[in-house]
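Q:
Just now I want nothing more than another pair of eyes on a protein record. Here is the record:
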Amino acid sequence: MRHLTGIGILTGIKEYLLMAVGMFLYSFGWIGCILPARCMGGGAGGLSLLIYYAIGGALPVGVIIFILNAVLLLIAGFIVGWRFGIKTIYCIVVMSVLMSVLQNVMPADVDIFHLENRLLSAILGGILAGIGVAICFLQGGSTGGTDVVAMIINKYRTISYGRIVISSDFVIIASALFVSDLGIDGVIYGYVFVAVFGYTVDMIMAGNQQSSQIFIVTHDYQAMADAMLYKANRGATVIDAQGWYSKECSKIVMVVCRKRDTSMILKIVKTVDPNAFISVGSVMGVYGKGFDALNKV
């Protein structure tokens, strides 16, 4: 029991450390790339940047984003209930502190990477922020902002999360034309940042969840299933089938594995039955023993 408790504590510490790393990358993307290039962005970060420009930099971006998230959490608490996880609050606090510290360490008029190109800054900022948020999501955390807005809106109307994000980002970035001197190019680069950010998050999240579903049609299905079990250390499911051309009954051995194990599975299949018919497909999420826990859905 003590051993299991120790493992749980270490797992928790690892998750919070990874979330801190993710929030550092996210904050660095905003403060180190987007702010010096005078670009815009979406979500709570973009709205904070918008307010920062509107008030002439009187408050650090980290303080503004903390106030925004605190207000949103307070409103959501009274409307939909206090269902916020400790990880969400942790990420918001860490992100706000890191943004404030980084803004003090890295002046807004200094191009750290010497990119001298606002487009490259927007792309690099989107990649860094996307990686950071993806790391946070994978540990069960959240950066608040749009997530909280979506929770409030869905209390009264059923609107998809993606539509809420796209709509809010469009409005926030477009509003920069009226409250700051970023210019139309700063707004355009803001949309570039959002596109790169979203693509990066999707790629990392999909890559973490992707698995292969392999169907093996073979006459020696028992040997094949045993090979999957004892050589590949993978479970197998035998499915009844019938070849419609030959009208012969046969068996299909189905195996689900991580993408990285696909090549190993195929080599084992070849040693058991070189004439086997194989179909390999990609699946986005697999839940159950040996894969992701169902309670994470």
About this structure: The two ends are 27 Å apart (CA to CA). Residues 2-208 form one domain.
